[in-house]
Structure formats: structure tokens, C-alpha cells
Write a structure and sequence with these properties.
single chain; alpha+beta; 4 helices; 4 strands
């Protein structure tokens, strides 16, 4: 699955129930400037992608582009 996500041109990342990033694809690296090595297992609250963390929280709650499975959330095309 990681190979498929890495080949996507979309900015894709997965967070767990603690809101820590557990997957960061190559497009996310390119578009954000954060390397996978430096971003994995970091809380989205400490990653400077959004000025207001409520943006991502609202996105997760209100967008069909987030897919929930157990305690993980896949997010694409923000």
C-alpha cells in the first residue's frame, strides 16, 4: 500500500487516533517541504502546515476525502 500512496501525485498522509502522523507520501514531502524522516510520529499540532489546527480537525470531520479505519485516518487532497 505504501508504494501506491507514494506514487500518487496527491498530498496524502495518515494520522492515528492520537493525531500523530504515521504515513507521509512523497508528494506530501514535495509540497510541504517536510521530509518523511522528520515528520513521522509527530503530532499534527506541531507541524506548521496550518496556522490553526482546527482547519485539519474540521477537514477530518466534514470531508469525504478522509477515510477512517480503526484508529487511523487517511487524508488526501487538502
Amino acid at each position: 500500500m505504501n508504494k501506491i500512496l507514494d506514487s500518487a501525485s496527491e498530498f496524502i498522509f495518515i494520522i492515528n487516533s492520537q493525531k500523530k502522523i504515521v504515513l507521509w507520501n512523497k508528494s506530501a514531502e514535495k509540497k510541504s517541504g517536510y521530509s518523511r524522516k522528520n515528520i513521522l510520529n509527530k503530532s499534527i499540532k506541531y507541524v506548521k502546515l496550518f496556522e490553526d489546527i482546527s482547519i485539519i480537525e474540521n477537514f477530518i470531520e466534514n470531508n469525504d476525502n478522509s477515510i477512517r479505519h480503526g484508529d487511523t485516518i487517511l487524508i488526501t487532497s487538502m
